[in-house]
Amino acid sequence: MRPDQSRAGDYAGAMADTPPGGAPPPPAPALPPPGSSTPRMPLRRLGWQRILVLAAVLLVIAVGAVVILYRLGSDLGPEALLVGVVAAILPVPVLVACFLWLDRYEPEPLKYLIFCFVWGAFVATSIALYVNEGFASLFKHLGLPAELTAVLVAPFIEELTKAAAPILLLIFRRREFSGITDGLVYCGLSAIGFAMVENILYLGGYGYRAGVEEYGPATGAQQVIAIFIVRILLFGFAHPLFTSMTGVGLGIAARAADRRVRILAPLAGLLVAMMLHGTWNLLPSLAAATGQPIIVLYGYIGVMVPIFFAMVGLAVWLRAWEGRLTERTLPDYVRAGWLTPPEVAALGSLGRRHAARTWARRVAGEGGVRAMRGYQFAATRLALLRDGMRRGLDRTPAERDRTAREERQLLDSIVAYRAFFVGRDPQAPVGIWDGQHYHLRFPDGSQRAVEAPDEPVVPIPVVLAAPPPPPAYPPGYGPPGWYGAHPTAPWHPGA
Question: N or C end of the chain: which has fewer CB within 10 A?
Fold first, then answer.
């Protein structure tokens, strides 16, 4: 920041305005002294109800894992199973990395990501396998083509079972759903797990084992390579693409206050996923029935590829939107004195966040980097929480009280993280931020009020001063003064 830089108007006020009825942020607390260890976010306690739910989920996943592993082992044999597992796992790290790349602003808890992946790999595949086989036997008994299973049954049961884990998270852990990006990540990981196990069956069974039984190991290896190219390199995006439609619906429901939208959006997304999946399975059936394999190519180029690139564009745009959300909501806390304008601006893009971590490493070492990462995560969570308050996502007094408590926890965490690197940069002047201006004291002893810079790229490590008391909160979000007494600045701005 340059001390001589100024401009007309209030920087914080120009960034965002609090809508009518929105809850103003609480006054800033006293700044704690920097600690020697990196602070951490508060952990939730495990009550007996959560332990029972966790045990039930683990039991269901374990049963699914045993069922699918036993089935694959008995159908394929050890050698074909090993070949299928190795070949099917190869693309998984790349696909998982793509979805984690989308989730860099506000990474979801690892346990929920693993839950979605293993649910898709074991539970969804086990259920879908037996349901598909049951309907295939029924169609055969009725004298109908077995291919009807792929078109009329598989899309519905597979999309429903893949989406079950993200739906459970939305119902029981709604606060872990911050929008469409989270829906895409959760559903995408479930679909990747499902596709991985399905590919084991195709690569190991229809590829290697069938080739070995017919002509020998060389033919088996050739068929594995051919299936790998077609199913993974060309069509590897199919399952994540289908289930991403459900993810969009779940993400919309997570940020909607209208109860009708919360119910209809996931149903609509699931229906679109089923229709897209059914259309995809219909193409090879039509090609086989008509003797025109070009139908598959037309469907791939004319339908699936455009939809795929449209979803990629939507995901990238949503990723950038999540970063800009901090610039739209956190200025409320700038005006209240919790944050400084450069800190908010430094959260607006991944490039600026990286620059802030580089600065933190320079002034506070690796501990400063860890504190900056925690600070950025807590600030993003705070922005999402504030956005939810504006949208009216909390419908009951209990939910509003919980939101108020979570806001307090996040603000306390931000103060703790911030204290880890405040005042450690010898190149920055001493000063405080009062919610409107910087009041800086320079080496020559002079003191001046300085406007916030237009385009800052790193946080300015100054102390936060106490603002005037805020207006009253709207009903349900706590009375004025709930956050305690105002802090005392180390020196008065007017001194």
Answer: C
